Automatic annotation (TrEMBL):
<dbReference type="Pfam" id="PF16355">
    <property type="entry name" value="DUF4982"/>
</dbReference>
<feature type="domain" description="Glycoside hydrolase family 2 catalytic">
    <location>
        <begin position="342"/>
        <end position="504"/>
    </location>
</feature>
<feature type="domain" description="Glycoside hydrolase family 2">
    <location>
        <begin position="757"/>
        <end position="858"/>
    </location>
</feature>
<keyword id="KW-0378">Hydrolase</keyword>
<dbReference type="GO" id="GO:0005975">
    <property type="term" value="P:carbohydrate metabolic process"/>
</dbReference>
<dbReference type="InterPro" id="IPR048229">
    <property type="entry name" value="GalB-like"/>
</dbReference>
<dbReference type="InterPro" id="IPR036156">
    <property type="entry name" value="Beta-gal/glucu_dom_sf"/>
</dbReference>
<dbReference type="Pfam" id="PF02836">
    <property type="entry name" value="Glyco_hydro_2_C"/>
</dbReference>
<dbReference type="InterPro" id="IPR006103">
    <property type="entry name" value="Glyco_hydro_2_cat"/>
</dbReference>
<dbReference type="InterPro" id="IPR013783">
    <property type="entry name" value="Ig-like_fold"/>
</dbReference>
<dbReference type="GO" id="GO:0004553">
    <property type="term" value="F:hydrolase activity, hydrolyzing O-glycosyl compounds"/>
</dbReference>
<feature type="domain" description="Glycoside hydrolase family 2 immunoglobulin-like beta-sandwich">
    <location>
        <begin position="227"/>
        <end position="335"/>
    </location>
</feature>
<dbReference type="InterPro" id="IPR051913">
    <property type="entry name" value="GH2_Domain-Containing"/>
</dbReference>
<feature type="domain" description="Glycosyl hydrolases family 2 sugar binding">
    <location>
        <begin position="89"/>
        <end position="212"/>
    </location>
</feature>
<dbReference type="InterPro" id="IPR006104">
    <property type="entry name" value="Glyco_hydro_2_N"/>
</dbReference>
<dbReference type="InterPro" id="IPR008979">
    <property type="entry name" value="Galactose-bd-like_sf"/>
</dbReference>
<dbReference type="InterPro" id="IPR032311">
    <property type="entry name" value="DUF4982"/>
</dbReference>
Length: 864
């Protein structure tokens, strides 16, 4: 932004994503650490310089940390201005240093299946020159990092500025005392990722956006606005605004504060104006001003599909002596929430059943490096299933993901911790909990509180403290009360897989959130041989009786397992069974059957979950574990790289389970999904059950024209199943009925030999901004265009023109070919190429897929 634009606006926030140098070492050779947990005296502990970065988020000023005088004694060459980094890798952010692999294979490796077999561990240094003009002298200069994994420490011009250990928070550091006006400023960021520090793939690096903000020393504080609404109706709503202002200058000033409300964006129609306020602000002081106004006929924020997710923008301006010194924009929505113990969630008075999923932060083959289009695509595929809610398991998401959920009208449960004081893995964030829980929590809340999509705050997932009696409940109350200090409009919860209704823990929460217990754990005969772990009947009734005034939901249901396109025989005749080699699993191929009847030992099939939800209609809904497959946690086969829990695989291809959810979540959709595929040369004459996912209540199945009988759904049945079909090649045809009327038909045919490839980009026009992506699916077909269901042909992708191949995948959790590879085997007939347009050069990008003995395919993507 030019100085003139700055003068017109009073604030300049620019991306710092471009132009970094990077080096990673697997070991820590720097002789510094954040904290010494190994009693290893070789390393200088830098924690005293980092802790003061938390001060703005610690409410008791007596507990603020003082920066030690001077600098640490260890001289880090990488942090010096004149360090020669020309041999380091050049790159742009967001960046995940581990995603390119290679994968670690087998046992005894530094990073095993749980953390995704990718080289996340080690120390990463990032360096970049900062251009700060002479005119910048006198301004406040802030570095803003939206996520760095992990233990970030930041130097500017040889001086240690501060840092932030928790990899999932956004954080801001004040660079003002350290910069030299002029070109010669060097920023150095050091990250340190431990092994054994996560239950899933954390990624490594500065994996979210980085910004530089220049502003007058008197300005709106970081995340300094809170905009809420009350008395909301179609007729009117009261909007309350709190704006916190700080004076980092040396003199006391009188400041005027004006906030306007616009429809949608700052450029949208102005619909309201708060009374102007004026305050005196002494040097070093922070003060908040409050305002309220009534808006007539507000356009409410509502989850889709029933209504629109309307947004407003509050524009706050600060004036000193009538001169504009800061402009700060806050996007928000007007809506009411009610949490009813018997009816569930009410948004603007309307009951909305929570049809949600859990999502980890990775973007499959793109890793943890945030990309808006990749995240939007995840939401789009989920929306197609009828999903209306996302639980951010188990950590703060990228801020842009919440912008997407606001705009797309998803409900969100925003979650901050997977553990408190009690560890889940030896080097996870329990190590920093004592000093950082308050700043982590307040930073999370202040950043996210204006997003209308967020309906509840989760302070923890399955923390060990659930079952430690009063000790654990006391921590829950502390965290709960911090939340209520920052936001009075939403309720607080934590997920419980082991707490019981009589324990103190659930009593400390506003909403009862159960993981798996709601539908019961190891409670049916198919699970009775499992002796490790909890066994409980469905817990909804007991919690409802113990907390008759608290809304209840399941923050995790199912933990059902499957591999797309894999069908194993025989098929269980019960509705839910754990996976093992005689039941839905194959530990040699490491694949799980997609009849969608199998679960983790502690889980339940979808059918069993639906039954328990329907038997307990006061439950507000569910978040399925999980929406998409994710990197790491490959239960039940830890030699694999990625999970089996999703209704969508890691590459974005729909599993059969997707359609089971769709049949319930979109009951008006005329859809009937048949499984398995019908190409079984080795099964002629063998029983090959056929199951159908549909909102219809009745169906008739024909094999080569012969009826296999009419099947009707009984009470608490969610699929149509013909378990005695004897395989013969040819055609399966299905006719379904709902309430006696014909509903949807489907046909599945036996495919011939693999003959050709077909390409299908999800978008064939993308932006040439170096960020936008096209996800190009390739399908292996026979000569007639039928998918060859078990095709595993090796495919080579190539890209020409102003674009590049970023990564490939096929959704197979066992595929350890590294993601950037242009060669990828098809898996169950499909593979994926992710293509990006080069920044600034628009044109036609040709994507080609070739495979030996197959007719190749080309598609054009236009970038502009
Ligand atoms: C839950 C846990 C999730 C995930 C899931 C499936 O217990 O909260 O993070 O691990 O099980 O294994």
């Amino acid at each position: 932004m030019s100085q003139r634009a700055f003068a017109a606006h009073g604030r300049d926030r620019t991306s710092l994503n471009v132009g970094w140098r990077f080096l990673r070492t697997e070991e820590n050779i720097d002789h510094v650490v954040y904290d010494n947990i190994l009693n290893d005296t070789n390393n200088e502990v830098l924690k005293p310089w980092i802790l003061p970065s938390a001060n703005n988020f610690i409410n008791d000023a007596d507990k603020h940390y003082q920066r030690p005088s001077g600098n640490p004694s260890t001289v880090l060459p990488q942090a010096q201005k004149d360090f020669d980094d020309s041999s380091w890798q050049s790159l742009d952010l967001p960046h995940d240093w581990a995603i390119q692999g290679p994968f670690y294979e087998g046992y005894g490796v530094p990073i095993g299946g749980g953390m995704g077999r990718l080289p996340v561990q080690g120390v990463g240094w990032y360096r970049r020159q900062l251009e700060l003009q002479a005119e910048d002298k006198g301004k406040s200069i802030y570095l803003e990092v939206d996520g760095a994994m992990s233990y970030a420490m930041v130097w500017l011009n040889n001086k240690l500025v501060g840092g932030w250990p928790y990899g999932y928070n956004s954080f801001q550091l004040d660079l003002t005392p350290y910069f030299d006006p002029g070109k010669d400023n060097y920023l150095a960021i050091r990250l340190d990722n431990p092994t054994n520090s996560s239950r899933w793939y954390p990624g490594g690096g500065i994996y979210r956006n980085v910004w530089l903000t220049k502003v007058d020393p008197v300005h709106v504080s970081q995340w300094g606005t809170s905009i809420t609404s009350r008395e909301v109706s179609a007729v009117s709503a009261v909007v309350d605004a709190v704006v916190q202002i700080e004076n980092k200058g040396n003199s006391s000033l009188r400041i005027e504060i004006a906030t306007d409300i616009h429809v949608g964006e700052a450029s949208g129609k102005k619909v309201g104006e708060f009374d102007r306020a004026a305050i005196n602000l002494g040097a070093g002081e922070r003060k908040s001003v409050n305002g309220s106004l009534k808006l007539d006929k507000p356009r409410l924020w509502n989850p889709v599909p029933n209504q629109q997710p309307n947004l407003y923008m509050a524009v706050t301006r600060l004036y000193s002596n009538n001169k504009l010194i800061d402009t700060f924009e806050t996007s928000f929505g007007i809506r009411s929430l009610a949490y009813d113990a018997n009816k569930g969630l009410l948004v603007n008075g309307e009951h909305v059943r929570i049809q949600g999923v859990n999502q980890h932060h990775d973007l499959g083959a793109l890793g943890a490096a945030f990309n808006v289009r990749a995240a939007q695509r995840q939401l789009e595929v989920l929306r197609e299933a009828g999903c209306n809610a996302i639980r951010m398991s188990h950590n703060p998401p990228a801020p842009e993901l919440l912008d997407l959920t606001d705009r797309m009208g998803f409900l969100v449960m925003d979650e901050v911790f997977d553990m408190w004081e009690l560890q889940k893995t030896p080097y996870d964030m329990h190590l920093t909990f004592a000093q950082w829980h308050e700043p982590i929590l307040r930073a999370f809340l202040r950043r996210d509180r204006n997003h209308p999509s967020i309906i509840a705050w989760s302070i923890g997932n399955e923390v060990g403290e659930q079952t430690t009696g009063e000790t654990g409940a006391a921590i829950a109350r502390t965290l709960h009360d911090i939340v209520r200090e920052e936001d009075v409009t939403r309720l607080v919860t934590a997920s419980m897989n082991a707490a019981e209704p009589t324990m103190p823990f659930p009593a400390a929460l506003d909403i009862i959130s159960l993981n798996y217990q709601g539908e019961g754990i190891r409670d049916t005969p198919a699970y009775s041989h499992l002796n490790n772990g909890r066994r409980t009947p469905p817990q909804y009734p007991a919690f409802h009786a113990a907390f008759p005034d608290k809304m209840m939901l399941s923050t995790e249901t199912a933990a059902a397992l499957s591999t797309r396109g894999t069908y194993l025989f025989p098929v269980t005749d019960v509705i839910s069974a754990p996976v093992n080699d005689t039941s839905g699993g194959n530990s040699t191929s490491m694949h799980v059957s997609s009849y969608e009847l199998y679960s983790a030992d502690f889980g339940s099939s979808v059918d069993k979950v639906f039954t328990s939800l329907d038997k307990n209609p006061y439950v507000a809904g569910e978040f399925v574990w999980s929406g998409w497959d994710y990197l790491g946690e490959p239960t039940p086969y830890y030699s694999a790289r990625s999970s089996y829990f999703g209704l969508i695989d890691l590459a974005g291809f729909k599993k059969d389970r997707f359609f089971l959810y769709q049949s319930r979540w979109r009951p008006d959709l005329r859809m009937a999904h048949v499984l398995p595929h019908w190409t079984w040369p080795d099964r002629v004459g063998e029983v090959t059950p056929v199951h159908v996912f549909t909102a219809a209540d009745e169906g008739e199945l024909f094999l080569n024209g012969k009826s296999q009988g009419v099947v009707k759904k009984g009470e608490f049945e969610y699929r149509l199943r013909w378990d005695d079909v004897v395989y013969e090649p040819g055609e399966l045809h299905l006719v379904t009925y709902k309430d006696g009327e014909e509903w949807a038909n489907a046909t599945v045919v036996t495919a011939g030999e693999a003959a050709q490839l077909q390409l299908q980009p999800d978008r064939s026009v993308i932006s040439a901004d170096g960020l936008d992506l096209s996800f190009v699916a390739v399908r292996v077909t026979d000569g007639q265009g039928n998918t060859v269901p078990e095709a595993a042909n090796a495919i080579t992708f190539s890209v020409s023109g102003p674009g590049e191949l970023v990564a490939t995948d096929n959704g197979d959790p066992t595929d350890l070919a590294s993601f950037p590879s242009a060669e990828r085997k098809a898996f169950s007939g499909f593979a994926l190429a992710i293509v990006r347009g080069k920044r600034g050069s628009s044109g036609r990008v040709t994507v080609t897929a070739e495979g030996t003995g197959l007719q190749s395919a080309k598609t054009i993507i236009t970038t502009r």
